[in-house]
């Protein structure tokens, strides 16, 4: 028995900081519609915000050439139900699933703002998968509900 | 995105309310920097009513905590029972750099230790 399921909602935004809130609104509405518990919806929300900010800030000019596409899927498997969000963008290839976050600073003096998004995504997701195909990054983050 | 402060002797309590994502952080960035710029050397930032804390919000906290420290001041965080915020601060290691308290009295008391 493998994982079964399907995409239940899709959305797209420009790779623009001003559009990230609309993606969060779509996620909130979809999570509510499909009965995702509030605390789990918040985790998805947080991961999505970090993924989108990484694209906007670091994916380069090619990210703006086509929309950032979002897909919300619900999978049922032997270990329970999982919500998976796949984000696809045309920015430069970057594997958020396996790239190590930067080391934590040991003091406030040596702390550099930024670089925390990866730690949050990797820390909160129960599953992360990445592939680059047809000139696009596909990152899927999932949590068990 | 509401942000406000109250002063008591040498201590300033900055209260932030709402969603501290990229848009929310942009909204309060200038006010937060001005409020924590050293007018009072001891600053408690109340995050107990923040419904969402992203890495951009954390970036803002670090910038202002460093700036205050460079002027001889100190910032601590009060999170109350806000699990989302405390989990994020713990998992990113920020709570070891900027002290975090679940009790406001302990946060205020930390400046006299």
Characterization of the model:
The complex is a heterodimer of chains A (145) and B (113). Chain A has 145 residues and is an alpha+beta fold. Chain A has three helices and five strands, in the order βααββαββ. Chain A is globular, with a radius of gyration of 15 Å. Chain B has helices at residues 22-35, 55-70, 83-91, 104-109; strands at 3-8, 11-20, 42-53, 74-78, 100-101. Chain B has a five-stranded mixed sheet with strand order 1-2-3-4-5. In chain B, β4, α3 and β5 (100-101) form a beta-alpha-beta unit. In chain B, α1 runs parallel beside α2 (55-70). The model of chain B has no long low-confidence stretch (mean pLDDT 93). Classes of the chains: A alpha+beta (145), B alpha/beta (113). Chain A binds chain B through residues 17-18, 20-21, 24, 42, 45-46, 49-50, 53, 104-105, 107-109, 111, 113-114, 116-117, 119-120, 123-124, and chain B through 21-23, 26, 52, 54-56, 58-59, 62-63, 65-66, 69, 84, 88, 91-94, 96-98.
Name the helicity range of chain B: 25-40%
Low-pLDDT regions of chain A:
none
Rg of chain A computed from alpha carbons, rounded to a whole number of angstroms: 15 Å
Structural class of chain A: alpha+beta
Which CATH first-tier class of chain B would you pick?
Alpha Beta
Order of helical and strand elements of chain B: EEHEHEHEH
Biggest sheet character of chain A:
5 strands, antiparallel
Strand adjacency order, main sheet of chain B: 1-2-3-4-5
Summing up helix and strand content along with how strands pair, one would put the structural category of chain B as alpha/beta
The CA-CA distance between the termini of chain B, in Å, is 33 Å
Strand-residue fraction of chain B?
25-35%
Q: Superfamily at the CATH H level of chain A?
A: Histidine kinase-like ATPase, C-terminal domain
